[in-house]
Each structure stands twice: as C-alpha cells, then as structure tokens.
Design brief:
It is a single chain. With 579 residues, the protein is mainly β. Helices cover 10% and strands 34% of the residues. It is globular, with a radius of gyration of 22 Å. The two termini are 34 Å apart.
C-alpha cells in the first residue's frame, strides 16, 4: 500500500492537506512509478542499471607529478550528491559532484529514468576540485538552487572559490556566488544552512580543511596553535541579498580539519548549535550557540570522548525518545586482517599526550552518542554494534524499512589504502636503499581493495542488526557521498551513492510497508522550513525529525520528511514546531 502525502503550511497548523496515493506531492498529477513492489521475502533494495536509468556519472581521479596523494592527502576523499526537485514537477532530481571533471545534473523523468541536463542547465562547475553540494532555495523564490564547495587547487585560489548556481525557473542556472559574497576561496568541504541568529533567514556554516597538512600527525605546539584564516571554517550571516562573514565575531575561527558537521540543538536551550567533525589529531568542535551571535566550543563539557579521525556525521533520533542522537564515522575495519594491515595500533603514550594538550579522549571507532536530555551524551556505538565499518564516509540515519525506527547506512571504501603497513615499509626501505622511483611506481604499490557498504536495521532496543547482504547493499565499492530520496513517489526512501572510479549507484527501495511524507511551507525568508521539527504519533509510537538538508558526507537530502508506519492505516497526531 502506498502512503498518504501531507503538506503543512506555515504558520497555521489548521490547513493540513492529505493527498491520497496517485497524486504527486506538489503538482497533484499522477506520478510515473515502477510497479515492482516486492514480497516480504525479497531484498529491500535493488540496484538499477545505469544504462536503464540514464545516470552514467562516475567520479574518476587522475594523479599527476604535480598533484597527487603526496602533496594533497585528501585526493581520495571523493564527491557528494544532492537531491531535490529543481523544476517543481513533483519528481526528485539529482546533482553529483566530480573532483576533477564536470559535475552532473540529472532531471527525473519518472519511472527511474533520468536525463542529463548539465550542459543546458549551466551547472558543470568543472574547473578546479569539487567536493560538497547542497540544494537550497537561497532566494526563497520557490526554486531550489545548488551550492557547491571547492577545494584541492593548491596554487590558484580562484579555482577554489565556492559556487552558487541560482535557479532561473526554466531548468537553467546562473553562477552567482560572487554576487551573494559566498565565493569562499578556502579549502571547502561542505556548506550547512541554518538560522543561527533567529532572524528568520538562513545563514551558512562552511566547513573547510587545512592544506598544509602540518598539524595532522604531531603535537608541536607552534603548529597546533596556528590558525590560518583561509584554512578555518567560516560562518556567514544572511543579510537579505548578500552574506556577511562573521567568523571572527562569532568566535568560530579554528584550526579546521573539517570533514562534516551536524546542525541541531545539542543542549536543549532552543538555539541551533554546530558539531564539527575533524580529521587527524584535531579534536571535534561542539559550538554551542550563546544566543547573542557568538558560539563557545563546549566539546570537553558535553562528551566523555569521541572519534579520532572523524569523518561524516548525522544528528537524528535513533530511539524515538524525541531527542536527536549523534553518529560519527571513523575508519576501523571490522575485518581482522584489514584492521592489522591498514590501521595503526593506538599508542597509549600518544593517546595521553593528546588528552594532556586538551584534545580530549579520542578513539579510532565510530561513535553513537545517545542524547541524555541534559546536554550530555553517552557513546553506545559498541553496544549498538555499529562501531567498526572500515574506511567510512557517510553515515545516514533514516527509516529505510518503514517500521517506525530510524536505521543506519554507512558508505565505505577508499581508492588506495594509504595507511597500509606493508606499503609504508616498502617505501621506507626503498628510500633507505637510495634507489630512485617514479610517482607511477609509488602509486602502483599502494593496495586497493573495494569494500562493501554497511546497512543496519534498528531493532528498537538501542542495538542494530547488520542487514547489508539481506537488504541488497553488500556490493563492494569505493563509496563516498550519499543521499536518500523517494525517486518514484511510492513513499519509501531510495538510495543514491557517489562512487569513486565506479559508476554512481541508485538503489530502488522495495518496501511494501506504509509511510507518511510531510512537506513544509515556511515563512517567506525560509520557505522550506529549515530548522523546523515534525513529530508524528501513531498507535503509541512517536517519531520526530528535524528539517536540515546537509547530512552525512558532502551531500544533502530532500526537504520532505518520511515517517514509517509499518502496517498502520492512520496517524493520531502530526505536530510541527517552527523555529
């Protein structure tokens, strides 16, 4: 059975419209869907052939003598994908980022058929090195725009300027980052839109990373304390038709090794905070919003410990207690052989040095921080069974099997195992022998092994069951950014993954359970209701979700909130809390 569609309009909750199955969410026309709903015994996901879908995107990396893993350690970090309806036809479109070649925009034609409109839309963004992407209505005209982060260009800062493709309403875009003063030339990772100052419009937190790679492996004080302005994350205040950089004023200048962030209220005071995941030795940041335009890093106060090489993250409710919990991905393999060959052992001495300099207790495992409701969090990652998922990138929390409990997807894999112990020893021995080697030779020695992504089913008791194989998601790959979206309007969440080397993957969700989909119409300066919280109660089970788009790693989800109902025919309550 297909779902009800619900549209809720701001600011009154009186006008609630239910659209029965067969009506598109906005246009009220019949969607084209594949008639492939499966029985309970079939796999939850089916990978669709790119030749059939028309999505032929692949993020291919080519190293050179002047640009390689030696002078740019993030060369294998991959690209992202954003999902949203760019032409308001009721079908979700997809935008993939490529590190070195053209990004790709695919228009959803229905029935899982997509059309590449990149060239005609003017959204290639092919110069420089592209990383994260977020679809956001920057000017609140009812059409989604595309914000793109740039990095990698070591010498030409112009090629690092972030891009803003503004939707013209006719399936074409104009690049206007400079006009909006969002052409940040730092080493960008991903942008996060939220209203930090409660003035009704959307501001931007830009996660960046350092490019000198000096403070990633040692604790030399003069290096660790050095803040370089264009390496730091940046905070931009929305001034209507432009953004103003308020990083210094807000107290958010940092030493930036950011790979992701999560937005939400971490201390339950009604103000939106920012959790930043930092790679290498640099600790994560928890920027608590002081409510006066400034933030204070309270990571030492609210967390007992966290992941060391923090990668992607998501902030969502995993136990239906009405409070969001934090998942942060790391790089520890579950496999014993890969663990011994690719990850260094944790040195007690180094660990204690990290703690002594104020970098807190950091562990090389995924962490799942359970919200205690009093501003503190408890890591239950190992109890939950999700602490080791190899070289992980994007953790996404959503109800994929529609049973009313949020599940977990983790993308996984890196093109070259840079941490491989045998490779490092071989290089060290070659250097000691004083025998010359070419770049191609050095690269060829690095092991490369595709690994499967992880899919975990929430069992409703703070534990998760690995369903990667039974859900049809165990194919080995080098997967980076990922998003979820209902591509065929049948009410369940399909998966889209940006792979390195291999073609991007689209997985159709075959769930036969019921769900409700909630869309928000916000005020004129925040038309998609970013920051709002929706709670759905049904038969004693209460689910809550927050409207934030940038999630996981380098990617963004749609502005529609999905709630699984299992076999229930109705809900008892829909509550919207506006920011």
């Amino acid at each position: 059975m297909k779902p009800y569609f619900t549209q809720i309009w701001y600011p009154s909750l009186i006008k609630v419209m239910f659209f029965l199955t067969g009506l598109a969410f906005y246009s009220c026309t019949s969607p084209q869907t594949l008639n492939t709903k499966t029985s309970e015994g079939d796999k939850l996901f089916t990978r669709l052939n790119g030749q059939i879908t028309g999505v032929d995107f692949s993020n291919n990396i080519k190293e050179s003598l002047y640009f390689n893993f030696i002078n740019y350690s993030y060369i294998y970090n991959g690209g992202g994908v954003s999902a949203g309806d760019i032409n308001n036809d009721g079908l979700i479109d997809l935008y993939f980022t490529a590190n070195q070649t053209s990004n790709k925009l695919y228009l959803n034609q229905g029935n899982f058929k997509f059309k590449d409109i990149t060239a005609s839309a003017g959204v290639e963004g092919k110069l420089g090195w592209t990383t994260g992407t977020t679809m956001i209505d920057i000017n609140n005209d009812g059409y989604l725009d595309i914000y793109v982060s740039k990095s990698g260009s070591l010498k030409d800062h112009k090629l690092r300027e972030n891009l803003l493709f503004v939707n013209q309403g006719d399936e074409t875009f104009l690049e206007q980052a400079g006009d909006w003063r969002l052409n940040d030339a730092g080493f960008g990772t991903q942008g996060y839109f939220f209203d930090y100052d409660k003035d009704g419009d959307l501001d931007l937190y830009q996660v960046n990373h350092r490019a000198d790679f000096e403070n990633n492996t040692n604790l030399v004080p003069e290096i660790q304390s050095r803040i370089i302005e264009h390496f730091s994350d940046q905070l931009y205040e929305n001034k209507g038709d432009q953004f103003l950089n308020v990083t210094q004023k807000a107290g958010m200048a940092n030493k930036a090794w950011g790979l992701s962030a999560s937005i939400g209220d971490f201390n339950n005071d009604g103000w939106e905070d920012v959790y930043v995941c930092n790679d290498f030795l640099q600790p994560d940041y928890l920027y608590i919003n002081n409510g006066d335009g400034t933030f204070s890093n309270k990571i030492l106060n609210q967390f007992d410990h966290f992941s060391q090489n923090s990668m992607g993250s998501d902030f969502a409710d995993i136990n239906n207690d009405g409070m969001n919990d934090l998942i942060v991905a790391e790089m520890s393999p579950e496999d014993h052989v890969r663990s011994k060959s690719n990850m260094p052992s944790m040195s007690t001495e180094n660990f204690e040095q990290i703690v002594a300099v104020g970098y807190h207790h950091q562990y090389m495992i995924n962490t799942l921080q359970l919200n205690q409701g009093n501003g503190s969090f408890s890591d239950i990652g190992q109890l939950a069974g999700i602490s080791k998922t190899d070289w992980s990138w994007a953790p996404l929390v959503a109800d994929f099997d529609e049973d009313g409990w949020n599940d977990l997807l983790v993308t996984n894999g890196i093109i070259k195992d840079l941490s491989n112990s045998d490779y490092r020893k071989k290089i060290k021995d070659r250097i000691a022998s004083r025998v010359k080697m070419s770049l191609e030779e050095a690269i060829s020695w690095i092991p490369s092994e595709r690994v499967a992504n992880y899919a975990y089913r929430n069992q409703g008791d703070l534990t998760f069951a690995n369903q990667s194989k039974t859900w049809g998601l165990a194919e080995a790959s080098f997967s980076n950014g990922s998003t979820y979206a209902d591509l065929d309007n049948d009410g369940d969440l399909d998966l889209i993954v940006n792979n390195a080397v291999d073609p991007a993957a689209i997985y159709k969700n075959n769930s036969i359970k019921k769900s409700i989909v909630v869309g928000l119409k916000g005020p004129e300066k925040n038309i998609d209701g970013i920051g709002a919280r929706v709670t759905v109660s049904a038969n004693g089970l209460e689910q809550s979700k927050n409207q934030y788009l940038s999630r996981g790693y380098l990617s963004s989800v749609t502005d529609l909130l999905h709630f699984g109902l299992d076999s229930l025919d109705k809900v008892d309550l829909i509550k919207v809390e506006w920011p």
